[in-house]
Design a protein that fits this description.
There is one protein chain. The protein is α/β, with parallel strands linked by helices. It is 36% helix and 19% strand. The protein contains 11 helices and 14 strands. The protein is globular and about 55 Å long. The protein binds iron/sulfur cluster.
Amino acid sequence: MVKPFVPQLVYIEPRALDYPLGRELKDKFEKMGVEIRQTTSHNQVRNLPGDNHFQQYRVAKSTLVIGVRKTLKFDTSKPSAEYAIPFATGCMGHCHYCYLQTTMGSKPYIRTYVNVDEIFEAADQYMAERAPEFTRFEASCTSDIVGVDHLTHTLKKAIEHFGVSEFGKLRFVTKFAHVDHLLDAKHNEKTRFRFSMNADYVIKYLEPGTSRLDERIEAAAKVAKAGYPLGFIIAPIYLYDDWKAGYQTLFEKLEAKLPAYATKNLTFELIQHRFTKPAKRVIEKNYPMTKLEMDEEKRQYKWGRYGIGKYVYKKDEQTDIKETLGGYIEKFFPKAELEYFT
Ligand code: SF4
């Protein structure tokens, strides 16, 4: 069982203490006996304990920086939402293929922003611009927000904020099962709560530090019972020796545990494993013993933006993935919607 995250080290930017959440978190970590350091800016978070990159990377992944979000201009987040809403960056998990390894580069620590009301005000303006169209906000573009939310409750406030909004919707995805504090949030069905799921083998060997498969399924069942619209992202779909049986077991378990009514408004997103050359180099540095297969020869090259192409599975394998997993969705969840396969 993966325990809820507790940072080893906390940094606080002085301006964060101008906000109630900043002060609340400072008190909380003092009482918990976690080491707290002051910093004028997160860019000054240097000299983390550890003798080499490998150790410092691990310390950073269990360091929390409490800060203020300065830019309130949101990035776009197509195709699943209009905007990325920034509540946190970084993650305590150690998934070997995590995209944050390349996007966060030398700053892999976790940051949480305490000026939550200002972030909501910015979101309200974006909604007003598009009304009466709905505006969807994605809360997990730069972190696994659920993984840290038992400490901050920022996501819970966001769920309730969008719950009473007229034209706003929230969505996020998680690999963590620590959802109990979110179950009584007044979501008004405006939040789609998604879990990232995978075959047991993949979670076991490639996603250390995240909740295990059975824990995630149990959490998904609780979320469904709390009336949230539910979704699953099966990602990355990874072809190991016995992948068809592994993914079939996943679907069997999901069907057995989910309440039948939850399966009527269920969404699936399917994403095959891919890597870029720069990502491969970073992964080999951060997780030198990984079992993750990244052999360019076995893959198909797909041209990408900014000249950085991806290595995806070969065409016939992609067809096999689509047919196999698409088949499981049809068989086990005939009323669910498959949003995309990529
Ligand atoms: Fe990255 Fe998600 Fe794994 Fe966290 S849980 S390490 S964000 S892939």
